[in-house]
């Protein structure tokens, strides 16, 4: 059962400096251009819900839809909201998802305001906390400061972490909180492995002094699920680990009580009394909706490519998701390398691995002078790997990573052998469970629902910290490999750093569609821009006119109270002063421009032109 570290090496001054540099790099990547690009659809869901506002005005009839009332004002829009308003906003605007994050963001906005920088900075803080926790976990449970530092460096530059620290959504928070739960899980098992506790038959005496940790674990469990329901998979992995390795009733009782009390106190009320009761109904509707699209219109449906969940379709959809979980293989499944090139590269990689295995066997058998590596391996392995770069058919340097993949697999195998203490092995098994469980569940849901729509990177995001630690263990092993292996793989790693930083640069420039949703960079938040212009130019007697886009609901569920959309008016009012009494109304004669009509002259001043969907992200 125990996962007590093999050693608890303190940080030297040099290691502390390295860690501070890593954290500085992580912060720089997360803070740069934080508010340079406007909020997109999912962020809009979160922002309106955080203010107790339902998109399209279901709980704002008195503001927008009162008969005989032609105008509305920011003061009316921002009138105090009740708990029922927030509940309805989460249910209707964000399908009952992420109430923990939405509630926290609402409090955050009250203190720090609703600018794009402010609302996204909360994700930056959680992402920085994730880097720090990854260092602590890796350092403590491998017994190696170097593994901790390498893991932290990988986490600092992980493209998914960088991208979603720039998004006002629950992912960064849920990743951090579920990782914190894993830290608490291991610390509790550490404490229970103490000899003074293992012999205690009374489970409450054995858990004495641990109930604070159990309470923290229970809260982290509930908040993870209330951050995103798929966060549950982290705790399923914890349960699998308990079944595999823990034979201690004190642990079963402690974790059981923590989970039970958190479920009864936080989860049951949400899923039975509040907006959460609609979540599973909504998910069932979405499953049927996307299944219909997969069967009838898989390519041109407005939601992307949605295919029936056949084995080949699920495999093709899952391959880039699984590959991009790992820093080393990021981009290999999505770059256009060509089937012939992939076969060539993998064949060369397997040949390289074969050379290494034969050389190792000869050396162990005493068939080489002085037990040294044969010369042909020292020459052949670097030549084959580096020679890949010279093959004409290879379109880019990512192929070198693919060729080196079998050898990296061998290095990981050697790393597992090196971390030979049973506690370290158990820790690596736990990392594997935490890595695989969310992905397997995602594939199970795809087959169950009959479509591939949900196979997306963000739904496996809770696996990323553990993939990062596994990569840290692998890279650390290079320091113990023969030089002819470590040097050439270090060169491959340097090449990989270039591609990772290039991807991060595209993420920060908002032109990495997998991570940012957009291939063309967004402009600065158009709604905030419009609100600033209105505030600067409005004088008493003026009227603001908002465009009214005609709605075309696909079914009864999508129908709203009014046949025209009021989203542009709602989003702009989020950024207007709460006590302002500007006269505003909807203009059903046009769909794209916000106008300011001057009261004395009737002059029309263009505030913003959305140009159809161009700036409605």
TrEMBL record:
It comes from the Bacteria. It holds the Pfam family PMT_2. One of its GO terms (molecular function) is pentosyltransferase activity. InterPro entries: LipidA_mod_glycosyltrf_83 (IPR050297), RgtA/B/C-like (IPR038731). It is found in: Cell membrane. GO terms for cellular component: plasma membrane. GO terms for biological process: lipopolysaccharide biosynthetic process. It is a multi-pass membrane protein. The chain crosses the membrane at residues 12-32, 117-138, 170-189, 210-243, 249-273, 342-359, 375-394, 426-447, 459-478, 484-501. Residues 99-191 form the Glycosyltransferase RgtA/B/C/D-like domain. Keywords: Cell membrane, Glycosyltransferase, Membrane, Transferase, Transmembrane, Transmembrane helix. This is Glycosyltransferase family 39 protein. It comes from Fibrella rubiginis. The lineage of its organism: Bacteria, Pseudomonadati, Bacteroidota, Cytophagia, Cytophagales.
């Amino acid at each position: 059962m125990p996962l007590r570290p093999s050693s608890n090496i303190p940080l030297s001054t040099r290691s502390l400096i390295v860690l501070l540099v890593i954290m500085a790099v992580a912060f720089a990547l997360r803070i740069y251009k934080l508010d340079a690009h406007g909020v997109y659809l999912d962020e809009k869901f979160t922002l309106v819900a955080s203010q107790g506002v339902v998109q399209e005005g279901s709980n704002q009839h008195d503001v927008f839809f009162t008969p005989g009332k032609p105008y509305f004002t920011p003061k009316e829009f921002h009138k105090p909201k009740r708990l029922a308003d927030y509940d309805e906003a989460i249910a209707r605007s964000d399908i009952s998802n992420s109430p923990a994050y939405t509630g926290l963001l609402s409090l955050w906005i009250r203190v720090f305001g609703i600018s794009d920088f402010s609302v996204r900075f909360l994700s930056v803080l959680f992402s920085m906390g994730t880097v720090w926790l990854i260092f602590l976990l890796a350092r403590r449970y491998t017994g190696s400061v170097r593994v901790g530092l390498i893991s932290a460096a990988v986490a600092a530059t992980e493209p998914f972490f960088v991208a979603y620290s720039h998004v006002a959504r629950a992912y960064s928070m849920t990743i951090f909180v579920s990782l914190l739960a894993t830290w608490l899980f291991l610390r509790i098992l550490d404490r229970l492995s103490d000899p003074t506790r293992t012999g205690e038959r009374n489970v409450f005496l054995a858990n004495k002094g641990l109930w604070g940790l159990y309470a923290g674990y229970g809260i982290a469990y509930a908040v993870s699920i209330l951050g995103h329901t798929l966060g549950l998979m982290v705790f399923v992995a914890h349960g699998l680990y308990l079944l595999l390795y823990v034979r201690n009733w004190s642990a079963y009782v402690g974790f059981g009580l923590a989970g039970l009390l958190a479920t009864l106190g936080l989860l049951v009320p949400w899923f039975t009394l509040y907006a959460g009761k609609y979540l599973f109904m909504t998910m069932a509707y979405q499953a049927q909706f996307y299944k219909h699209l997969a069967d009838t219109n898989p390519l041109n449906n407005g939601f992307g490519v949605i295919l029936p969940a056949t084995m080949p379709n699920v495999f093709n959809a899952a391959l880039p998701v699984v590959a991009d979980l790992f820093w080393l293989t990021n981009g290999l499944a999505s770059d256009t390398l060509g089937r012939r090139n992939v076969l060539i590269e993998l064949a060369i990689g397997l040949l390289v691995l074969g050379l290494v295995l034969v050389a190792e066997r000869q050396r162990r058998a005493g068939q080489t002078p002085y037990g040294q590596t044969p010369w042909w391996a020292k020459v052949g392995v670097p030549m084959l790997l580096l020679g890949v770069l010279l093959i004409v058919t290879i379109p880019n340097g990512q192929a070198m990573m693919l060729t080196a993949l079998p050898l990296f697999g061998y290095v990981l195998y050697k790393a597992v052998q090196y971390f030979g203490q049973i506690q370290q092995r158990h820790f690596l098994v736990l990392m594997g469970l935490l890595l695989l469980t969310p992905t397997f569940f995602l594939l199970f849901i795809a087959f169950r629902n009959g479509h591939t729509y949900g196979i997306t990177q963000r739904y496996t995001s809770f696996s990323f910290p553990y993939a990062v630690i596994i990569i840290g263990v692998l890279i650390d092993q290079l320091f113990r490999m023969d030089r002819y292996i470590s040097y050439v793989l270090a060169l491959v790693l340097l090449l990989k750093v270039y591609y990772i930083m290039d991807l991060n640069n595209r993420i920060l420039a908002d032109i990495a569609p997998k991570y940012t949703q957009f291939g063309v960079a967004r402009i600065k938040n158009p709604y905030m821009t419009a609100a600033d212009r209105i505030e600067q130019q409005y004088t008493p007697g003026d009227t603001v006119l908002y465009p009214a886009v005609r709605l075309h609901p696909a079914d009864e569920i999508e129908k709203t109270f009014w046949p025209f959309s009021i989203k542009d008016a709602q989003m702009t009012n989020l950024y207007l002063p709460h006590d302002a009494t500007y006269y505003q109304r909807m203009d059903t004669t046009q769909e794209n421009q916000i106008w300011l009509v001057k009261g004395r002259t009737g002059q029309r001043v263009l505030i913003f032109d959305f140009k159809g969907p161009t700036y409605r992200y």
